[in-house]
Structure formats: structure tokens, C-alpha cells
Amino acid sequence: MAVDNVLIERLQALLGETGLIRDPQRMAPYLCDWRKAYRGRAALVLRPASTGEAAAAVRLCHEAGVPLVPQGGNTGLCGGSIPDDSGEQVVLSLSRMNRIRALDVQNDTVTVEAGVILAQLQAAAAEAGRLFPLSLGAEGSCTVGGNLATNAGGTAVLRYGNMRELTLGLEVVLPDGQVWNGLRGLRKDNTGYDLKQLFIGAEGTLGVITAAVLKLYPAIRSRATAWTALPSAEAAVALIGALRARCGDRLTGFELMSRQSLEFVLRHLPGCSDPFAEPHPWYVLIELSDPSAEAALGEWLEASLGEGFESGLVRDAVIATSEAQVAALWALREGISEAQNHEGPSLKHDITVPISLIPEFIASTGARLEQALPGVRIVCYGHVGDGNLHYNLSKPPGMEDAAFKSRQPQLTTLVFDATSAMHGSISAEHGLGQAKRDAVRHYKDPVEQALMRALKHTLDPRGLMNPGKVL
Ligand code: FAD
Ligand code: 2HG
Ligand code: ZN
After folding, report:
1. Alpha-carbon distance 286 to 226, whole Å?
2. Is residue 2's pLDDT more than 90?
3. What is the pLDDT of residue 270?
4. Which of 169, 194, 443, 449 could be bridged to 213 by S-S, CB 3.0 to 4.6 A?
């Protein structure tokens, strides 16, 4: 059903001037994602300031049969937060719900609203002498609600897990406007189904997350960071095994990057420089960290890299000697997404395969892609400890954007078929949104898909929560 004047008046009375946007110019930032890959239209943008306001707004839209698109920082990479082009959907932005409600140092938990920016949450935890470990390139603008709705991962998953593992409780506005208060800070609770897991990773299709209780960890007091050059992806898999054997959980970052990925960063991001004089086929950014200020991380790192040189796993390495150098090395890694944007449209594939199969995946898929589209530039990087590669493609030099885009179905099928043949996942981190909604039907078990549809129907029988996404 379309948004009519009666509904607008009710929503306006509920949310006030700052809580409802109709002006097309002011709506524009809510209708386009970070990458500018998805654009939509909307009847309204709603910006509730409290759970009560969000629940009342959802109830009014539900009664009127109006579809809602929950939105956080709009950094998602699959178009999940962008409405369709009908102009009949309503964006529900959580950006004004940005309070840290409580921080319990002894329980090691923090209760936050969905619109809190991830970097602000990290800072609040640090101020209390704690760590909130989720860390990703978009942390300056993505929100806790978006992190939960996409079950975000990032660069510390190998030690701390995804958002799912960091969450103890949720508050959710259900599609009919009821509020489920599951804000429990308990590490043990076996009183039935673990309902929060339904909403985490659901990409806003089952309800609107308004707040969460999240786990905190001891603050980090020592750190050792190295940028290493490797001869092959095989060497990266062997090296992470060796580092884990020596350092256990103190290995908190292990990020692989191909030469192509680094070249884009060096070409497009000002102030970046290659740590080595010679080019190398692969790089790994390694980070060890520990809550103890006395941990001998530097020695462990040097010993591991020394063994790596001797066995031929490592070709060259620099160990950061200052905070500024640590930041400069991480900037090379975190800058890849932005750098690739400068090379025209990118085809993004965030896949997982078993860690042991990463080298074979890279070699065989690369060869097939080169055959399918000679000169295609493969921007391969990612979180080796999670088996998660960003296997992104940029057009061959000189090719028209439109011609490259027209090859997307063929190239993406090739990558997803290769992933599926290794019993991998076609979406390891970023979710399905609108980008992979159709593809997943082909790759996911039909029984699992039927269960997902049944759950969707139970919670949202009118199909008003983020329609057109995921399912
Ligand atoms: P949005 O983009 O606004 O929304 C994402 C999805 O969540 C949409 O489907 C939306 O409907 C839904 N949603 C948002 N808020 C709510 C809510 N309160 N309730 C219900 N549904 C909601 N992701 C990773 O996992 N790991 C990475 O390392 C990583 N790095 C990135 C680096 C860059 C430079 C960029 C641009 C993105 C990166 N991402 C990464 C993807 C993205 O940042 C994450 O998915 C992030 O968690 C999205 O948060 P957001 O607030 O921007 O959500
Ligand atoms: C990362 O690990 C993110 O940097 C973004 O998940 C990946 O832009 C991408 O494809
Ligand atoms: Zn990633």
C-alpha cells in the first residue's frame, strides 16, 4: 500500500520535525550506498529517537501495509539498506538512536543503541579499560545495528569471532510494532530457543534491532605488527599455522593481500608507500596482541619470521617500530575497498572456503577467469584465518564499464561455482542484500531455504520488513 497523507500526519505527530524527512534533497543520502552501486527511491525517511518512537512508527506502517527498510550507516556492500525504485518503501534510519545506555565493567558488557557508530563504541570501551574487538574499515561510519544485521566480521574474527559471538542480548521491534526486550547480559541462558540469533545476520528482514548487550574484553597493552612479503598463497596458509602454533590466541590479525590489491592502494590513496623496494606476489599483515604489557610479542614475531625466512615462507618483512608505522601498515590494508572504487565498477565476491583449500581456489579460479576474460584484474585479499577471501574483480585496462558489467553474470557464476565445488559459502561477511539474493537460491540447500522462508512468514506474514532482500 502507498504512503498517504493520513499516515504522514500520524508519523509527523509521532516523530516531530527532525524525525521525518520528505524533502528529496535531504532524503538523497539515505537512498544511495557507500559504493554508489545501488540507488533507490523512498516515500519517506523516518528517524526515531527512541525504542518507543521506533515501535510506534513500525506499528503505524504495519497497519497501513507500508514496507520498511531499516538503515544504519549505509556502508553495507550488498544493497541491503537501499529501498527499491518503486518510491513506495519507507527508510527507517536508526541514526538518532545513538546512546550508550550502560557499561558494566565487572560483567564485561556494554548496552548500546543500534545507531551507535562502531568507532564510538570502541572508544567507550577503551575509556573503561576494556576492548570491544570488532574492527573493520568502515568502523568510522557503520553502526552497531548494521553490524548486527549483517553479522559483521572484519580483521579480528580469528581471535574474537563475528558479531554473533560478541552479542549477549538484543532489543528488537518486530514487524507488527511489538517490542521484544531480550537485553540480557548473561553468558549462560538455556531457557529455550536462542531467538537473538534469528535477528543477527537477518539483514533487517525479520525486525528492527534497536539495542544490544555486547561482550567486552580486556584492553590490549602490547602489540607487535609486521608487514611481510610472501612467494605464494600456500606460504600464507603455512605461515598462519606456524604462528598459531607458537602464539595461540595472541595472533589477532592475519590479512592476506595480492600485489594487485596493493598496487591499487599505492596508485589511488595519497600518502601510501610500498614498505619494500621490490614488488612481491603476496603480502600478509600480521598482528599479535595481548592484555599484558609484558608479553614478549616482538620476540615471538621475530622468531616466527626468522623461521619463515629459513623455510622459504617469507621473502621480506618489516616490523613496525612506532604507532604511526602500525597505522600506516593498516592503512595499506584497509584502503583496498576505496582504492578499487577508483578503477570503475568492481564485482565483489566475499567467499569462504576451508582454509586448506585457499591456495587451490586462488590458482584454479584465477586461471578460469583469465580464460573467460583475458586481462581481468583480480583483487584478492582477506581474512585467511576465517577462510574468507575478498575475490573482487576489476575490468581489464581499457574496457568500457558497461561492457565489463555485462560480463558480471558469467564471471560471478564462475567464482561462485568454484566456491560451491569446495563446499564454501558465496557470502562469508557482507550478506546477501539485493546483490546475492537470486544467486543464493542456486547454491543453498533447498530445505534450509524453505526453513528460512517459513521463519520469515511466521515473523513477518505481510512481508513488510526489507522486502526484496535476502529471500
Ligand atoms: P547498513 O549498510 O546501513 O545496513 C546493512 C544491512 O543491515 C541492511 O540490510 C539493513 O537493512 C540492515 N540494518 C541496518 N541497521 C539495522 C537495524 N538496526 N535493524 C535491522 N536491520 C538493520 N563488513 C564486514 O563484515 N567485515 C569487514 O571487514 C568490512 N569492511 C568494510 C570496509 C568498507 C570500506 C566498507 C564500506 C564496508 C565494509 N564492510 C565490512 C561492510 C559493512 O561495513 C558492514 O556490513 C557493516 O556492518 C554495515 O553497517 P551499517 O550500519 O553501515 O549498515
Ligand atoms: C574488507 O575486509 C571488507 O576490507 C571489504 O570486508 C571488502 O570491499 C570489499 O570487498
Ligand atoms: Zn572483509
Report:
1. 5
2. no
3. 96
4. 169
Cα(380) to ligand 3 centroid in Å equals 11
Q: Is the CB of 425 under 6 A from ligand 1?
A: no
**Average of per-residue pLDDT across 334-363:** 97
Task: Give yes or no for residue 333 having a pLDDT over 90.
Answer: yes
Of ligand 2's listed atoms, the one at least distance from the Cα of 383 is 2
**120: which 3 cell numbers?**
564510538
Domain definitions of the chain by residue range:
5-93, 100-218, 222-338, 343-446
C-beta of residue 210 within 8 angstroms of C-beta of residue 113: yes
Return the CATH architecture of domain 222-338: 2-Layer Sandwich (3.30)
Q: How far apart are CA 318 and CA 326, in angstroms?
A: 11
- Å from CA of 58 to ligand 3 middle: 32
Pairing of strands 90-93, 44-46: parallel
How far does the centroid of ligand 3 lie from the alpha carbon of residue 424, in Å? 16
Q: Do domains 222-338 and 343-446 have the same CATH topology?
A: yes
What are the backbone dihedrals phi and psi of residue 143, each rounded to the nearest 5 degrees, phi first?
Answer: -115, 160
Query: Which amino acid residue places its CA nearest to atom 38 of ligand 1?
Result: 138
Tell me the C-alpha distance between 332 and 262, whole Å.
Answer: 7
- Give the pLDDT confidence score for residue 295 in this predicted structure: 86
* Residue with CA closest to ligand 1 atom 42: 76
- What the block records as the C-alpha cell of 298 is 616482538
Q: Is 427 in the pocket of ligand 1 (CB under 6 A)?
A: no
CATH number of 343-446: 3.30.70.2740
100-218 has which CATH code? 3.30.465.10
Of all protein residues, the one whose alpha carbon is nearest to atom 8 of ligand 2 is: 337
Protein residue whose Cα sits closest to atom 21 of ligand 1: 204
Neighbours of 41 (CB within 10 A): 15
pLDDT in tens, 147-186: 999 999 999 999 999 999 999 999 999 999 999 999 999 9
Work out the percent of the chain whose per-residue pLDDT is above 70.
Answer: 100
Over residues 209-255, the pLDDT tens digits come to 999 999 999 999 999 999 999 999 999 999 999 999 999 999 999 99
The number of the ligand 1 atom at minimal distance from the alpha carbon of 34 is 36
97 CB under 6 A from ligand 1?
A: no
Indicate the pTM of the whole model: 0.98
Residue 471 has pLDDT above 90, yes or no: yes
Q: What is the three-class DSSP state of 296?
A: coil
- Pocket probe mutation, ligand 1, options 46, 81, 383, max atoms within 8 Å of Cβ: 81
Tell me if the domain spanning 5-93 has CATH number 1.10.150.110.
no
